[in-house]
Every structure is written in C-alpha cells, then in structure tokens.
Amino acid sequence: MRGRHDAGVLSPGPRAPVIPVLTLDDPADAPPLVRALVRGGLAAVEITLRTPAALEAITAAAREVPEAVVGAGTVVRAEQVGAAARAGARFLVSPGWTGGLLDAMAASGLPFLPGVSTASEVVALAERGVRELKFFPAEAAGGTAYLRALAAPLPEIRFCPTGGIDAARAPAYLALPNVACVGGSWMVPQDALRDRDWDRVERLAREAAALGAPSAQV
Ligand SMILES: O=C(O)C(=O)C[C@H](O)[C@H](O)COP(=O)(O)O
C-alpha cells in the first residue's frame, strides 16, 4: 500500500487520543453530534456504515462541520469504498480485511485502517506495506496484554484498538508504545443520542480528549 496510506491515519501530526465511533439512525443528528465532539476536542470521527442513514450522515457531517475530519467505519465490502468517498469520508476503517478490500481502499487514495486481531494478520498486512491497523475487537481479542506482546516482535506496527474500550480502559491502551489512539463509542451514550443531549456528549468528549498522549492524524 503506497501513497496516502504512508501519511496514514495514525502518523504523528495534529493529535487526538480517541476516535469516536458513531452509529446513527437519523442523518440529521450527525452535524450537531459531530459539532459537539469537535467542541470537546475530538475532531476525527468515524461514522459506521451499519445503518441505512450512514452515508447521508457522513455527507451531512462533512458538509456542515468542515472543522471535523469525518471517516467511514464498518467498511466491509469493496463497493462501499467508493460510496464512502463520494459521501465525503476522509478516511476508511474496517473491522477486518481481505485482499480485495485492501486494494479498493488503497485505490481510493484515502488513509485507511484495516482491522486485525492476530499476529499472522499483522504479518500479512506488514508484508503488503500496511503498518497502521485497527485492533478489533480489542477487549475480546486480548486487550492490552495482547498488544504489548505484539510490540516485541513487531515494533513498527501502530494500532488503533477498538471494541469494548471505555474511559476507564482507554488510558492503559494509550500508554502502550504501539498504540496511537483508541476508538470507541462511550462518549456518545445511547440515551444522550436519543435525547439529543449534545452538551453531555461534549463533556464526555472533553474527558476523552484529555485521556492520553495522542497521535491520530487524519
Ligand atoms: O463497526 C465496526 O466497524 C466495528 O469494528 C465495531 C466498532 O469499532 C465498535 O463497535 C466500536 O466499539 P465500542 O466502543 O465497543 O462500541
């Protein structure tokens, strides 16, 4: 993988320790929600392609909140790559990977984070030149102990662990040398989203932004 991927989602640069992972049913929620996250200090956000509203939500957030960097998550099929890019996504995240998906993501020119949960996958992707990876599902797949173990043989790989991480667990991940940032949905609780309590989201985002030495760049 060449080109923009070398600039990467996780390379040093403008910093945020946490990427909020958003799943939205109403695209109208996207702009005020993303604005609240940006106000709290989390400017890079991932909107998952898990709902019919997702592409419209990406479009609305990208257009109405230009100070945010809006990416697409749950990219699991090659044809979703073009749709996400056309909607305005500026980075791509997948819970997993296939050769076809990697080719499509690389061809998009956008930074991307394929998901892995085993050492063999890390080696396979490193062989293809991909060194910035999502570790998913982080807690279920071995958590900080697993990532710490991977750092010894594979020190050049940088991870964004996601899945089961909350404000209490995030600092231990962020303290690892091979972790650039963490992903999670904890700063957007279901009831806050239902009640459109953007002030609460902003508070939780501010707490998340203060959590650790960050280095997500998108
Ligand atoms: O949809 C995807 O592409 C995923 O890989 C799953 C998400 O990253 C996690 O569901 C977010 O993690 P939680 O903080 O546990 O909610």
UniProtKB/TrEMBL annotation:
EC supergroup of this enzyme? lyase
Q: In which pathway does it act?
A: Carbohydrate acid metabolism; 2-dehydro-3-deoxy-D-gluconate degradation; D-glyceraldehyde 3-phosphate and pyruvate from 2-dehydro-3-deoxy-D-gluconate: step 2/2
Tell me what reaction this enzyme catalyses. 2-dehydro-3-deoxy-6-phospho-D-gluconate = D-glyceraldehyde 3-phosphate + pyruvate
Can you provide one Gene Ontology molecular function annotated for this UniProt record?
2-dehydro-3-deoxy-phosphogluconate aldolase activity
Q: Does the keyword Lyase apply?
A: yes
Question: Superkingdom, according to UniProt?
Answer: Bacteria
CDD domains annotated for this entry? Answer: KDPG_aldolase
What InterPro entries does the annotation carry? Answer: Aldlse_KDPG_KHG, Aldolase_TIM, KDPG/KHG_AS_1, KDPG/KHG_AS_2
User: Which UniProt key words apply to this protein?
Assistant: Carbohydrate metabolism, Lyase, Schiff base
Q: Does the keyword Endoplasmic reticulum apply?
A: no
- Name the EC number(s): 4.1.2.14
Describe the subunit structure: Homotrimer.
Instruction: State the similarity comment.
Output: Belongs to the KHG/KDPG aldolase family.
Q: Per its UniProt record, what PANTHER family does this chain match?
A: 2-DEHYDRO-3-DEOXY-6-PHOSPHOGALACTONATE ALDOLASE-RELATED, 2-KETO-3-DEOXY-6-PHOSPHOGLUCONATE ALDOLASE
Q: What is this protein called?
A: 2-dehydro-3-deoxy-phosphogluconate aldolase
Q: Which organism is it from?
A: Actinacidiphila glaucinigra
